[in-house]
What does this fold into?
Amino acid sequence: MTTLIEPEEHQALRKAVAAFAKSHHDTASIWQDAAELGYIGVNLPEAYGGGGGGITELSLVLEELGTAGNPLLMMIVSPAICGTVIARFGTEAQKREWLPALADGSRLMAFGITEPDAGSNSHRITTTARRDGADWLLTGRKVFVSGVDIADATLIVGRTEDARTGRLKPCLFIVPRDAPGFTRHRIDMELHSEEKQFELVLDDVRLPADALVGDEDAGLLQLFAGLNPERIMTAAFAIGMGRHALARAVEYARERTVWKVPIGAHQAVAHPLAQAHIELELARLMMQKAAHLYDAGDDVGAGEAANMAKYAAGEACVKAVDQAVHTLGGNGLTREFGLARLITAARVARIAPVSREMILNYVSHQTLGLPKSY
It folds into this structure.
């Protein structure tokens, strides 16, 4: 790793986060401890209590936390998606209310976009907001929303009617967790995670005018301001998980001796681990490119790179975890080594927040200029 790719200050941050993460085994306290050190809000503006960095720094933090076995899923949601959207498009009052609290870890915000019948088609979102005097009334359903039970509010993607055309356009609303008509139901997941998944129901949830984030006519621009960081951070999450699994496998392969030499001396064991390392490193390079483009203000370039990074990281993570478990054999399925739970968790990076097939569609259409089938 050279300073051309990662400057000295980023290398120092990576080293500090790695040391911090390795010393923490209590997931209940790691969020607040990381926030107190400035890691959670490293991407948020200094004027509002953040570190003044960008998604480049935040993705680095998440990657190292994951590598140490302490990934924080809500980093993708609270500071990366919600914090970024509010910092870029929120009113001054919204920035003052939310950004310092998101940065210091005292408050969390969830993000709700996915709907039961919309899937990957954001144009089919049916959660709608209509005006009622000075207020908004928000109605709809969301699924697979992470951490709603621990979040103080949820940033909800809805749609409003354009007065000029009558067509629906996307808008973002901050919905407090205790708002009347806003209910949640936990989804029973096979996936083991500290952060739980929920279905949300919004039944004429009344919101004040200032619950709307940014300009109601900006729509997609504001939405993708949050979705590109989400993809970059998901890549960081996956790379960290893959590095963690690979490190456990390498350690085992160095020490485990069945015949006369450690099993890592055999190419049938060593080469797949080497391939996994190469693919994780390649995914990291694309993630770094995407983060740099986003932080430089190139939303279009970042969109392409963020999708590619998320795809590459998801594939690399799954392969690394599978090979790690295979290297350990039966031990790879025991609770002692902690790899079996990653078999399911690794698939999340292939599925969420957008499937690998939809990323291939994006690259086919946007990058290669091929026609759409839908």
Q: What stands out?
A: The chain has a mean pLDDT of 93. The longest helix spans residues 220-255. The two ends are 42 Å apart (CA to CA). Strands lie at 109-112, 128-132, 135-146, 153-161, 168-176, 182-186, 197-207.
